[in-house]
């Protein structure tokens, strides 16, 4: 397979490692996350947030998501532990009810595998949900690493998860790529010295992606293979 133009420009060949975010990059999981948020809000007697509002909160990890929801609903912050318990229980039971895979995810993963590129899944999602979700979409075997937000001592935007993977195969950071959808992914890539491609269709948390200075802003993962 011919080396894609982005990779030729950045690496003079295929990258030594590709790290991928999950929510907002590979899958649209907001419908099920929003359902779990509304479940704990309802049980706490608070107004429901709804899918579109929750969409703007996703990307910083579950603890931050719950904190934002409680603040919005004007619920006592002391209820956070109870809310988190309800959230985890509900989300685990409805993990992939409405979650969908974005276009060309499997096309990209197949191309990377064919060309011998190691691939890591790095998300701030609790690790208990990561493998079941990937299993549902039959993607688990495509990844050499599955790192959740609680796998290591630090999570994105820390460089630690990215460097954990690159150092384990002695890959140079400048020859590695992070693909995500948010400022969290951009900062993680920047902190690690990785190239960064951001997708436009994910969860941007109100941030103008073009203003961040990522190496590429793409509308579809397949653009990386052109």
UniProtKB/TrEMBL annotation:
The keyword Glycoprotein does not apply. Pathway: Organic acid metabolism; glycolate biosynthesis; glycolate from 2-phosphoglycolate: step 1/1. It holds the Pfam family HAD_2. The keyword RNA-binding does not apply. It catalyses: 2-phosphoglycolate + H2O = glycolate + phosphate. One of its GO terms (cellular component) is cytosol. GO terms for biological process: carbohydrate metabolic process; DNA repair; glycolate biosynthetic process. Keywords: Carbohydrate metabolism, Hydrolase, Magnesium, Metal-binding. Its EC number is 3.1.3.18. Mg(2+) binds at residues 21, 23, 181. InterPro entries: HAD-like_hydrolase_sf (IPR050155), HAD-like_sf (IPR036412), HAD-SF_hydro_IA (IPR006439), HAD_2 (IPR041492), HAD_sf (IPR023214), PGP-like_dom2 (IPR023198), PGPase_prok (IPR037512). Its cofactor is Mg(2+). GO terms for molecular function: metal ion binding; phosphoglycolate phosphatase activity. The active site is at 21 (nucleophile). Specifically catalyzes the dephosphorylation of 2-phosphoglycolate. Is involved in the dissimilation of the intracellular 2-phosphoglycolate formed during the DNA repair of 3'-phosphoglycolate ends, a major class of DNA lesions induced by oxidative stress. NCBIfam families: HAD-SF-IA-v1 (TIGR01549), PGP_bact (TIGR01449), PRK13222.1-2 (NF009695). Belongs to the HAD-like hydrolase superfamily. CbbY/CbbZ/Gph/YieH family. PANTHER family: PHOSPHOGLYCOLATE PHOSPHATASE (PTHR43434:SF1). This is Phosphoglycolate phosphatase. It comes from Marinomonas alcarazii.
């Amino acid at each position: 397979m011919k080396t894609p133009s982005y990779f030729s420009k950045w690496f003079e060949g295929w990258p030594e490692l590709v790290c991928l975010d999950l929510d907002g990059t590979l899958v649209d999981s907001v419908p099920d996350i929003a359902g779990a948020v509304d479940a704990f809000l309802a049980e706490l007697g608070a107004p429901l947030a709804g899918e579109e509002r929750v969409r703007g909160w996703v990307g910083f990890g579950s603890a931050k998501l719950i904190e934002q929801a409680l603040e919005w609903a004007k619920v006592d912050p002391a209820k956070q532990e109870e809310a988190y318990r309800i959230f985890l229980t509900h989300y685990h039971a409805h993990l992939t009810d409405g979650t969908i895979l974005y276009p060309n995810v499997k096309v990209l993963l197949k191309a990377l595998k064919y060309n011998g590129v190691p691939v890591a899944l790095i998300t701030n999602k609790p690790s208990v949900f990561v493998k079941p979700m990937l299993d549902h979409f039959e993607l688990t075997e495509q990844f050499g690493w599955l790192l959740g937000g609680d796998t290591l001592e630090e999570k994105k935007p820390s460089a630690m998860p990215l460097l954990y993977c690159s150092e384990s195969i002695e890959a140079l950071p400048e020859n590695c790529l992070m693909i995500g959808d948010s400022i969290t992914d951009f900062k993680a890539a920047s902190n690690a010295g990785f190239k960064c491609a951001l997708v436009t269709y994910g969860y941007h948390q109100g941030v103008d992606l073009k203003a961040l200075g990522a190496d590429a802003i793409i509308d579809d993962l397949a653009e990386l293979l052109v």
